[in-house]
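We store amino acids, tokens; thus:
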Amino acid sequence: MLKLAPAAPLVALATLASPAAAQDYPMHVAAPGGEAVIPAAPYQRAWDEFHFAPARRAGDWLYISGVVAGPRPGEGHDVEAYKAQVRRAFRTIEGLLEAEGLTFADVTMINSFHVWEGPNFTGTKAQQFEAFSAVKDEFMPPPHPAWTAVGSTGLIAETGVTEIQMIAYAPQVSRR
């Protein structure tokens, strides 16, 4: 079963489903070398309006578009609130992986983009990195994937603190 946090954003712009006819999800759209994956209705808007795939398979690899962690209205900006926001983002990624029959054990690469100094997180760079790393480890026990963490001055989502992109090894199997 696909697990998605309620209204979990892939990107802040993709939080609402488009008013399309009922679809069966996950949807798989043929693409060169693989397929685009639209795992659930909330991601349809990303595909329809912003023209990106929440996830894209290329051969034996699944590329997951960035998922933003940051406060929603009324949420705190401290370390503990940030940990909850990162957990929500990881649950969203978990749903994307599950749509393809994968788990975090299949993830080979993480790219995370951090706004170290911004209005949506009140801690230090070290506190943010430690909090992110601790939550990552809740979802991803050893063996650890490769990981690049990059500092940024901002993300597409105004309240974004961190955007998380992943690549998973996903040997093709027939779904049909």
